[in-house]
Amino acid sequence: MSNYRKNTLATAVLGALIGPLSCVAFAQPMLEEVIVTATKRVEGMQDVPIAISVVSGERIEQQGIRNLEELALYLPAVHIAQSGGQNQVFIRGIGSGNNTGFEQSVGTFVDGVYFGRARNSQAAFLDLQRVEVLKGPQSTLFGKNTVAGAINITSQRPTDELEGYVEGSYNTETEGYTTTAAVSGPLTDTLRGRLVGKYYDEEGYYDNSDPAGEDPTREDKVVRTWLDWDATDSLTFSLKAEYGEFNKEGRHDKIVKSTPTADFLLGFGPDPDFAKSVGFNDKQSSSNRPGKDVEDNTDNTIVQLDFNYQMDNHSLKSITAWTEYDTDLCTDGDYATTHFADQCKTEDHEQFTQEFILSSELGGKFEYLVGVYYQDASLKATTNTGLLISAIPPIEAGVFNLLEPVLGFTPPSGFADSEVFSNFDQDTTTWSAFTQVDYDITERLRIRAGIRYSDDDKDVSNDQFITNVGGTEPNPINTVILGPAAFNFRVPYDYKLNRGEDHTTGSINLQYDIGDDIMVYATWANGYKAGGFDESNGLDISREFEDESVDHYEIGAKMELWDNRVRLNLSAFETSFDDLQVSAFETATFVVTNAGEATSSGVEADITVAATEDLTLYGALTWLDSEYDSYEDAACTIEQQIAGGLAPCRQDLSGSPLQFAPDWSGNLGFNYNFAVTADTNLVFNADAFYSDEILVAPDNDPVGVQDSYWKINARIAWEADDGQWMVAVLGKNLNDETTFNWLNDATLSGAGFGFERAYFGQVEIGRSYELQLRYSF
C-alpha cells in the first residue's frame, strides 16, 4: 500500500500561497481521511488510483439531497435526471438513453449489490455513510455496464453503542416535508441492529391550470433494517431488508416551445388558457383522459445477506441479494389537456445476484483478490399507448376528408381512435470471474493489474398490436389507418429472439510515490455495455442493438500537502467508445441504434483546504471535450423531419458534441464554524455551481441547448457542540436560475399535422428554502 513521503518543495510552494491564512488559527487544522470501498476493500481515497468524487452522508443530510438527481449538482460533468420515461445517468457525456431495454452506462451499487435498474435503488438516499462516484470504466471489479463509471453507495450500519436520531425538514417551494428516524445499537453481546424509516410528502412546484393544483405531488415511505451477527471471532453475518413505496401524481413534463398553430390544436382541451402555460416557467397545463391519471408509482423490496470470514492471511466475503420492484407509470403523451396521446406502462422486475470475493490481507508486497459473480434477472413491461384523433377536431376532419372517397361515406367520430399494446418480456443471465493483483516493484513503484471474463445471455419475446379504444383485440382497420398512413408504425408484430455474448476486459495501473505526500498514476482500462433488445420498438426497425465497448487512458496525481491541510487531486483522461448505444425520438416513438464511435477527453481537478481550524474551502473543476467521431445514421431534428415529410429521415452527427457534456463545469464552496456559546456553534456554508452550455436533445437540435448558468446554495445552522440537536435554514438556487434537464420533440411535432416545432421539456425548480431540525441521542 502507499506510504507517502514528504515533498518539501510542493509543501513550501503551497504553504507560501495559502500560509497567510494560518495566522488566524489557534490550533493546527487537519483534513480527515476519506474512506472508500472503490476497490472492494476499505482504503483511504488518496491511496486509490482512480478519479473519484466522494460526498459524505453528513453533507447529503445537511444539503437536503434527496436523490441522485440532486446530488449531480455537486459533481462536475455528471448528469442525472429523468427523461421522458426513464432515469438517465451520464458521466463525461456518456450514459444510457431513453429505452427500457438498455443496460446502464453508469452502474449503481448499493452496499456492494449491483442494481441493474434505476428504480431498484430509489430508497438509496436514506441513512448514508457516503456516495462514491468512480469515473471511467470500472469493468475489472464492478463488471459490465460501467463503461462511463460507477456510483457506489454505502449506507449506515449497526453500531456498538445505543444511538439514534429524529430529523425533519420543510421546503417552502414544494410545501414538502420529510421525517426520518433511526435507532441503532446492540441487541445481545454478539448481535447488533439498526432500524431506520423515512416519510416524504410534497405538493410540487408546477402551477397546473387544468387540473388546478401543484404538480407533481409525491409521497414516499421507506423502511430499512440491518442486523450484524458475530457468529464467531472470525465469522460475521449481516442481513439487510428494505421496503419502499414511491408514489407520484403529475409529471415534470410540459410544452416549453410551440407555434400558434400547435397552441391552437393543443388548446382544444378543457383549458382555454393553455397557451399561457407554454415556456420555460413554472406554469403547466397537462392531464390525461379519464381513467388514465398521470402517475408514477413504484413498490420495491430488497433482501441482502452477507458474510465475512477472516482467515490468517485472507478474508472471504459473500454477498447474496434479491431485489424486485413493480411500477405503474402513466404519462401525458401530448403534454396538454387535449387527451389525444397518452401512455401507461407497467414494469415488473426481479433480480438475484451472488458474489464471492477472496482477498489477501493488505500491507504486503504482493496483494490480490479473486471473485466470481452471478446474476439472474427478469423484466416484464406492458405498454398501452392511446392515440385519440377525435380529441382534435381539425385533425379528425382532415382524416375523414382523406377516407371519405375511399369508403364512400363519412366515418363516424372516433373512427380512427386507437390504442397500441406492447408486451416486452426479457430474461437475463450473467456470470463472470475476475482477479486483481498488486505488486510493489520497488518501495515507491507499484503495479496493479486486473482481468475479468463475463458471459451474458438474453431471451426476449416482444409483440405489438393496435386495437380500437378500450379494446384488447387487434383491429385490422385501425392498423391500416394508423399504421402505415399516419404514424408509420409497422404493426402488428410478434417475435422471440436470443442473444449471447462474452467479453474479456481488464486494466493495468502504475503508481509512483513522489515523496510521502504525492502519488502519481497512469491507467489503461477497457470495458463493455451489453447489447440487447429495443423495448420501445414502435417502428419495428430496431429490434436488436449490439454491445458497446470502451478503451480508457488516464494519468493523475493525488496530493496531501501543507501538513495535511490541503488535498489536491488531478487527472487527465481520454476515453474512446465503439458502437455507442443511443436512443432518439422519431415522430411518435424512440428508435435505438449503435452510433458508431465517440471520444470523451478532458482534465479534472478538485481541492480541499483546511484554511483554519474553523474554515474549510473546497472546489472542483472539469474541462471536457466529448464528441461523436462517427455517427452517420442519427435521428433527425424537427426541422429536418418537416423538410423530408413523413419519409424516414437520418442525419450525420459525426464531429458533433455528445449529450450532457459541458465544456466547463465546476463548483466552489466553503464551510465556516464558530462558537456562539460555550456549548453551541453556528455553521455557515455556501456553494456556487457552474455549468457551460449543455446539449440536452438527443438529436442535437439547437433548440435543446441549455445555456451556461450559475446556481448558488447556502445554509446556516445552529447546533449543539456535542451534536445532540441542530436547527438550520437551507437556501437552494438562491439566484433563481431557470434551467431544464430534458427537452425533446413533442408528439407528432415532425409529422405534418400542425404540431410542427413543438417541444416538451422538464424545467427544474427555482429558488426554494428549507427548514431543517434534528435531535440525536
Largest sheet: 22 strands, antiparallel, barrel
Number of domains: 1
Q: Which architecture name does CATH use?
A: Beta Barrel
- The CATH homologous superfamily is termed TonB-dependent receptor, beta-barrel domain
- Helix proportion of residues, in percent? under 10%
Query: What's the β-strand tally?
Result: 46
Radius of gyration: 27 Å
Tell me about this structure.
9% of the residues lie in helices and 54% in strands. It contains nine helices and 46 strands. The chain has one domain: Maltoporin, Chain A (Beta Barrel). The N terminus is likely disordered.
List the helices and strands and how they pair.
Layout: H1 8-18, E1 35-36, E2 43-44, E3 52-56, H2 57-62, H3 68-71, E4 78-82, E5 87-91, E6 94-95, E7 106-110, E8 113-115, E9 128-135, H4 139-142, E10 149-155, E11 163-171, E12 176-186, E13 191-202, E14 206-209, E15 212-215, E16 217-230, E17 235-249, E18 253-257, H5 260-266, H6 274-277, E19 283-284, E20 295-310, E21 314-332, E22 341-360, E23 366-387, H7 393-407, E24 418-440, E25 445-468, H8 476-487, E26 493-513, E27 518-529, E28 532-533, E29 544-545, E30 548-561, E31 566-578, E32 581-586, E33 589-594, E34 597-610, E35 615-630, E36 634-635, H9 638-644, E37 650-651, E38 664-675, E39 680-691, E40 694-695, E41 705-706, E42 709-720, E43 725-732, E44 740-745, E45 759-763, E46 768-776
Parallel strand pairs: 7-10, 14-19
Antiparallel strand pairs: 1-2, 3-9, 4-5, 5-6, 7-8, 9-10, 11-12, 11-46, 12-13, 13-16, 14-15, 16-17, 17-20, 18-45, 20-21, 21-22, 22-23, 23-24, 24-25, 25-26, 26-27, 27-30, 28-29, 30-31, 31-34, 32-33, 34-35, 35-38, 36-37, 38-39, 39-42, 40-41, 42-43, 43-46, 44-45
